[in-house]
Inverse folding.
């Protein structure tokens, strides 16, 4: 069996909104942010809660709850994904919306931050039910969304098909085809080349920069990926393409480990066939918590929030933690990892490749002019490398951790835009 410590369950799981506020507060202190500015940026501008009925297969009507939150739209329209998950809450969606504000600012794309979610378990729902739920939820949040107002995208348990339904529903209501109302669409209806892999590709560009900075050779380095959805599975594949050895991956059913290395392409095929990564031939099974503590060089949390806390931060063995997920690490764990010399690439920087290529998709839709994949990837690389180095410079100048540095870059940009626009009326 793998040599991991006994796993302690974290009973102090933090509410994501309190985490987001604490992270913001640390950066605001370092920036000596004016108290009025602090008060403005610490709130969400708009929070919409909707309850809506969906007729299920057996004829029973079920009432679902959903949200769309715009944290801040000072630098441009709201932007951010929509997730379908049983644990979605207003606090979580608010935190995710705030993180989008900072994410768009840190990579310098002209958007504010927004997020949406529906409390549901898509794994137990048919395609038909998911389509009905999506179309009705779209109708309910149409108060807020639109190509110039707020542009959704995929997130946990939503995908290009979900975006197609949103685009179609919005277009039917408006009497014309509005390509730019969502991003992450299928290619056949105004999607962009490279959008599917963009979150992972962007994360890998930041890992390459981090490893240069730290003097780590990625060839043969050992990688562990938590989560095998869009961000996780593509991260594993791209790291393997770079010559790294993927020694552990996981999904909601658990993790798999092999010190000799796991072929992510074969895991993909296996998961498509069986529904999960566990049981993949030649691997040992372990829990998601154990997976995080594996001996490796690079750990990529690519699942959901609250994975690395006070209880397991001392047990993380990776040299680089690259947050492809949003909010996987608590502020307590940040301090522990920083003290232990673990180099963390924070979510608002690490996973910003997704929204960056969403921006490229939106620009292409508005112009009706589409770019080649090589152009997309080259522009994505330029954005990620520059943003990483902006954050690294801030980190060196202020001797703070990388998350605080990323927040300082982002919060300063949003504060400047707010000051420049002034307070209405
Ligand atoms: N859901 C992704 C994120 O958290 C993408 C958002 C977008 O493309 O708008 O960054």
């Amino acid at each position: 069996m793998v040599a991991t410590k006994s796993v302690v369950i974290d009973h102090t799981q933090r509410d994501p909104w309190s985490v987001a506020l604490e992270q913001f507060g640390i950066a605001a202190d370092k920036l000596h942010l004016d108290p009025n500015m602090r008060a403005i940026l610490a709130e969400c501008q708009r929070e919409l809660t909707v309850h809506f009925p969906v007729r299920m297969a057996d004829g029973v009507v079920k009432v679902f709850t959903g949200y769309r939150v715009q944290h801040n739209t000072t630098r441009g329209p709201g932007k951010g994904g929509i997730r379908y998950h049983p644990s979605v809450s207003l606090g979580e969606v608010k935190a995710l919306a705030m993180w989008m504000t900072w994410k768009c600012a840190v990579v310098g794309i002209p958007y504010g931050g927004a997020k949406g979610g529906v409390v549901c378990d898509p794994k137990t729902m048919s395609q038909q039910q998911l389509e009905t739920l999506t179309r009705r939820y779209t109708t309910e949040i149409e108060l807020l969304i639109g190509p110039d107002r707020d542009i959704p995208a995929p997130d946990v348990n939503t995908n290009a098909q979900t975006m197609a339904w949103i685009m179609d529903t919005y277009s039917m209501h408006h009497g014309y085809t509005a390509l730019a109302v969502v991003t992450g669409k299928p290619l056949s209806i105004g999607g962009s080349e490279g959008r599917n892999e963009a979150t992972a590709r962007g994360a890998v560009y930041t890992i390459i920069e981090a490893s240069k900075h730290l003097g780590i050779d990625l060839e043969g380095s050992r990688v562990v990926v938590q989560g095998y959805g869009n961000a996780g599975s593509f991260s594993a594949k791209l790291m393997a393409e770079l010559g790294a050895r993927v020694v552990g991956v996981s999904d909601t059913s658990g993790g798999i480990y092999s010190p000799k290395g796991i072929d992510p392409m074969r895991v993909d095929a296996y998961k498509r066939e069986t529904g999960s990564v566990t049981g993949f031939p030649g691997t040992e099974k372990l829990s998601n918590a154990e997976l995080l503590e594996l001996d490796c060089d690079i750990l990529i949390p690519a699942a959901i929030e609250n994975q690395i806390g006070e209880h397991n931060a001392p047990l993380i063995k990776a040299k680089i933690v690259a947050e492809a997920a949003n909010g996987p690490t608590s502020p307590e764990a940040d301090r522990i990892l920083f003290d232990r010399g673990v180099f963390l690439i924070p979510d608002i920087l690490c996973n910003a490749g997704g929204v960056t290529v969403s921006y490229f998709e939106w620009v292409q839709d508005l112009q009706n002019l589409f770019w080649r994949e090589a152009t997309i990837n080259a522009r994505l690389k330029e954005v990620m490398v520059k943003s990483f180095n902006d954050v690294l410079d801030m980190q060196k100048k202020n001797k703070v951790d990388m998350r605080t540095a990323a927040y300082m870059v982002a919060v300063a940009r949003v504060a400047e835009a707010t000051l420049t626009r002034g307070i209405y009326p």
Observations:
- The pocket of glutamic acid is lined by residues 79-81, 103, 153, 155, 183, 326, 351, 354-355, 358 (CB under 6 Å).
- The chain has 14 helices and twelve strands.
- The two ends are 65 Å apart (CA to CA).
- Residues 66 and 315 are 37 Å apart (CA to CA).
